[in-house]
Design brief:
The chain is 54% helix and 13% strand. The protein has 91 residues and is an alpha+beta fold. It has two domains: 31 residues, no CATH class; 55 residues, Arc Repressor Mutant, subunit A, CATH 1.10.10. Helix 1 packs across helix 2 and helix 3 packs across helix 4. The N terminus is likely disordered.
């Protein structure tokens, strides 16, 4: 991944050169894949809280990090970070 980012940064620093097909592939690799993410209601069930509580935690900077608001009603979390948070949470 580091090499891909370096290639992208090198390309962006070159003025007036159109992007190539390989540059588009690099950008696609930087975007999170949806299969690596969990919907907010599923994360709330995993942790053992209600979905509105999870939403409040987001606004307070608590809970699993790395969430993305896909739309006004759809929030996803990285699966790895959600599982790590669940394992650290007191029971």
């Amino acid at each position: 991944m580091t090499v891909s980012v370096a290639v992208l940064l090198a390309h962006l620093s070159t003025p007036f050169s159109p992007p190539t097909k390989s540059d588009c592939i690099v950008v696609a690799e930087l975007e999170p894949r949806m299969e690596d993410r969990i919907h907010a209601p599923q994360v709330a069930r995993l942790i053992g809280i209600k979905t509105p509580t999870l939403a409040k935690w987001r606004s307070l900077g608590k809970g699993p990090q790395g969430w993305i608001q896909v739309s006004s009603t759809h929030v996803t979390y990285p699966a790895a970070k959600s599982n790590a948070f669940w394992q650290r949470a007191p029971r």
